[in-house]
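Collaborator request, handled under Task 6.
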Amino acid sequence: MLSAYISHPDCLKHDMGPGHPECPERLHAIADMLLSKGYSDFMVPYDAPLASVEQLTRAHSVLYVNELLDRAPTEGYERLDPDTLMNPYTVPAALRSAGAAVLATDLVLRGEVATAFCNIRPPGHHAERGACMGFCFFNNVAVGIRHALDVHGLERVALIDFDVHHGNGSADILAGDERVLMCSIFEKGLYPLGKDEQPGGSNMVHVGMDSRTGSAEFRSLVDAAWMPALEAFRPQLVYISAGFDAHREDDMGNLGLVDADYEWVTQRLLDLARRHAQGRIVSCLEGGYVMNPLARSAAAHVKVLIGAD
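Structure tokens returned to the collaborator:
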């Protein structure tokens, strides 16, 4: 069974100004690498639809969604926080990114594909129920998860977040929802400062790592902290917030991971999904800001999702 590749040209039009690390070139770099590796031949391309307000408000407050839509500028930039800006094309891009997670959920649960990779921007895992931050507007993966739970009626869904930054928005939205088990690894002392120290609830497994921890400790912590909880939870669907900024060539963090770590962790998660979730995985792009390591790491991730040797 082929995998889904979900993106949209609207995701390239969102721009936060010259020199901003969360730039349209990120999607080009990944798409070009997947094409050059031949991985695109094993993926069915889909255009991401626009998420509806109903879909968004399963994860976000109605007030927040309406306020964000109303703040869309007709020209120039609208600054929402020191790092996060809107241009006239931001709202369609954000709606497509959240819509990609919804479409991916539908595709895997209808059995049309086993796995899906959403090459989308803006990212989402910092967006909280009632606040945007950290380059994120809507929490794409949380919108997808709530769609799986509330529309498709799943009872147990896992979210894995291996971005170098703590997925505070996903934790804010999903904490206390016992239908969800969220497992994350992140570098301590990075943005968003203090958010990783907030109580998360019994359905959260957050593991902060020291700077320059490296591959061996990363793999050890995944096996020790994540896997027993995931095996006991037996998820029916696995979501991944796929951030690649923990790579040693990405200056957003200092964990020192390499391409092979992303391949390894994806294989661990695919094995889990095959045991409990009929192999079903939805992956959404989060961080990763240096083009070459981003593209290589995403390709290593997708290589496993498509079952390439």
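The cover message to the collaborator said: "Residues 90-109 form the longest helix (20 residues). The beta strands are 3-7, 43-47, 78-81, 84-86, 115-118, 157-161, 180-187, 204-209, 237-242, 281-285. Please let us know whether this matches your experimental observations."
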